[in-house]
Structure formats: C-alpha cells, structure tokens
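Revision sheet: structure tokens.
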Amino acid sequence: MHVFHVRYRNTQGTLMRILNAVSRRGIDLPYVQAEPAEHTHKATLLLDVNPKQIGQLCRDWHAIVDVIDVRSGAPIKDLWNQHAHWAPAVGHPPVSAAENGNARHATA
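Predicted:
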C-alpha cells in the first residue's frame, strides 16, 4: 500500500479528475480524504499499486492544471492495524436511515 498526497487548487472538477485517474485504472480506493490546507486543498489516497502504476498516476496528476504538488509515501504494509481510526465504523446505521427515522437510537 502506498500513500499519496495531492495538493491542488479547489476549482470545479479538480478533485474528480484526481479520483478519475485512479478509478479508470480499476484501482480500489480503500481510503480517500480531502481537506483544506492553508490556501489550497489536499487529497490523501491510500492505494495498492505497483511501480508502473505509481508513475502513471503521478504523471496524470501532474498533467491536471490545478494540481500543485504530488507526493508518494513509502510502502505501508499494514496501515489498517496501525491506524484503527481509518477503518470504517461498524454497527452504525447509514445517515439516510437516521434521517428517515428508521434507525434505532442506542442509549449509553
């Protein structure tokens, strides 16, 4: 697993172009986080890719006009066990169920 940090200007469609570079290759996106970072925005992606795909993705991301910087982290063997807060929550109803009143309310 590799971690990628893509810094970009938040213009219309930029985040989708970043994500489309991954999805059109059929690569799973187990973790994606986009957040503001000073005057720009940052997308953090966790991907299981080979060296050829790393080069292709970095080249595609650099070709996007509003992408400012792309950094690739070192391979990560078992990120899910190291950072349990990244794992999806288990046992919580979807937001749509809670809005419709179909969710059960648990009390502590």
